[in-house]
Amino acid sequence: MPGIVASDAAGKKRKRSGNEVVAKSSKTSKKSQDGEDAQSQILSLETQILESKKNYSNIATLLELCDNGDKNSGSDVAAAVALCRVYCRLMAGEKMIKSKGMKESDLEAVDWLKAQYKLYIRMLCDILGGEDEALQSTALTLLMCLVKEETSQDGRRAEQAWKTGTFFHVVRTLVASSETEAAREEFVEKYLEEHDDVRFYTYLAVAQVLSKAQEQERDEIVANSLSLLSLVENVPDSADQIEDWYGQPPESPKHALLSLQQHKKIAQEAWLSIFRNALTKEQRKHILTIFTHRITPWFTKVEMLMDFLTDSYNAGGATSLLSLSGIFYLITEKNLDYPAFYTKLYSLLDESILHSKHRSRFFRLLDTFMSSTHLPAALVASFIKRLSRLALHAPPGGIVVVVPWVYNMMKKHPTCTFMLHRVPRGKAEKKKLEEEGMDDPFNMNERDPMETGAIDSCLWELETLMSHYHPNVATLAKIVGEQFTKRNYNLEDFLDHTYSGVSDYCL
Fold first, then answer.
1. DSSP conformation letters of 117-135
2. Planar angle of CA 182, 187, 192, nearest 5 degrees
3. How many Cβ atoms from other residues are within 10 Å of residue 130's Cβ?
4. Element (H, E) at 337
């Protein structure tokens, strides 16, 4: 047979014949021709609709192509784009609005157009909530084009369009589908962060969706709502910054869109709608991580966050620590009164803290919490003493954090240095120490750091660490026995060490 190269060797590639190449080329050409025919048909249908209302029935044909069009030729997408242009033109020409004096046939035509429009929006939302990210992006773009047209009307119609129109369905789809992560990111980047009205009505829609969510879908909606709102970075500082509009700008100077107070109120309600649900530990940790810079700026009444922070503290572990970070922020930045803060912080110093994978995060926050020079010496002494005691059973990587931290605390709170070189008072006490030893006045079981008696104790634990089996740990521990002439240590240099990672330090 011509065009075939025979081969005796098994597995050798077979060359294509000229006929096969021609056949494949013919199929490709036919496929391309079919695609061009479909595109021409779609454009023709679109043109006819815009020329005369007698051709409105073509909308049903385009909807059919959207639903059952050839995905390979792209006719389904082309039909969806054509319908978007059609409906934008119809809305701009006010062809979908009823008015007094309209004929019965015209009223029926408006009702029919609205019904087909709802089908089209539902179809686009199904695509937006689907698995194909490329189609999601296309659907989001088309939907937001329609939103722009809907919200470019005047007065109440524009406001109603934001609240119950296509935009509400877009937000609901973004938070109801588990497949829309990429679409949420695109929505935030292109629309929500760029336009103040989009952000305002997004928060409003999220709160409404969460309030109406069914029990079986609530967990999914909460998770996706959290994912969406967590992406919002820009929080306006003043009403002057609220000036970028996607739809029609507010006509009244007293409109809620122009009020920073109203923006914060709506955002606050959206976040509270999330907090009211049964959150997982990972969700709480995520919220607490972005708490200070993406959540609290929206709250006009920060005390409303205390219940959430208290519940997070009761969750234990790293969640408790992160919750205290949020409370500390509210105390220092928002002047919130929380007397039990250091008692709760002290309770986190248990046997596992120096073994925890969150050890580095803990000491970063602890260093911030204890940074004030106005803390009572008795309280500081309790933290120093308890961590020194815990260091006796800690891995080398944990000890090398505790010792520099204690050194820094001593430099910052000189009244605690008596714990380093405490000597017996009087001959009787000295004799008892030599003959029988003495009890440590520090009460390890006391929960109140002001009542532990640590200030009357001594740091014999650090003396013990000077004889540690690991030479680098022993050398490091000896810094507390020397004169305090060195500068404060940079704690970051001692974090994140493991047993094998403990190396020599320049002391």
1. HHHHHHHHHHHHTSS-HHH
2. 145
3. 16
4. none
Contacts of residue 321, defined as CB under 8 A and 6 or more positions apart, other chains included, come to: 348, 358, 361, 362, 365
DSSP secondary structure letters along 158-202: HHHHHHHSHHHHHHHHHHH-TT-HHHHHHHIIIIITT-HHHHHHH
3-state secondary structure 288-304: HHCHHHHHHHHCCCHHH
Burial class (CB in 10 A: 0-12, 13-18, 19+), 366: buried
Q: Quickly tell me which residue has 């120096």 as its tokens.
A: 354
Question: Residue 301 is encoded by which pair of tokens?
Answer: 């009444």
The beta strand positions in 44-147, using DSSP E, are none
Q: How far apart are CA 226 and CA 277, in angstroms?
A: 11
CA 430 → CA 437, 451, 463, 464, distances in Å?
9, 26, 19, 21
pLDDT tens digits for range 152-171: 987 788 899 999 999 999 99
What does the mean pLDDT of the chain come to? 86
CB neighbour class for 439 (10 Å; exposed up to 12, middle 13-18, buried from 19):
exposed
What are the tokens at 286? 């995520």
- Express each pLDDT in 377-436 by its tens digit: 999 999 999 999 999 999 888 898 999 999 999 999 999 988 887 665 555 655 555 555
AA letter at 344: K
Q: Tokens 């008892």 belong to which residue?
A: 432
Distance of CA 329 to the CA centre of its chain: 19
466, exposed or middle or buried, with CB in 10 Å at 0-12, 13-18, 19+?
Answer: middle
Does residue 218 contact residue 277 with C-beta atoms inside 8 Å?
A: yes
What 222-225 contacts at long range (C-beta under 8 Å, 24+ apart), as own/partner pairs, is 222/274, 222/277, 222/279, 222/283, 223/283, 224/174, 224/175, 224/176, 224/177, 224/178, 224/180, 224/184, 225/175, 225/270, 225/273, 225/274
Tabulate helix, strand, coil % of the chain (nearest 5).
65, 0, 35
- Cβ(424)–Cβ(433) under 8 Å? yes
Q: Which residues contact 192 (CB under 8 A, 6 or more apart)?
A: 198, 199, 202, 231, 232
Q: Which residue has the tokens 């997004």?
A: 202
CA-to-CA distance for 59 and 221, rounded, in angstroms? 33
Task: Show the tokens assigned to 196.
Answer: 């103040």
CA pair distance 481, 487, nearest whole angstrom: 15
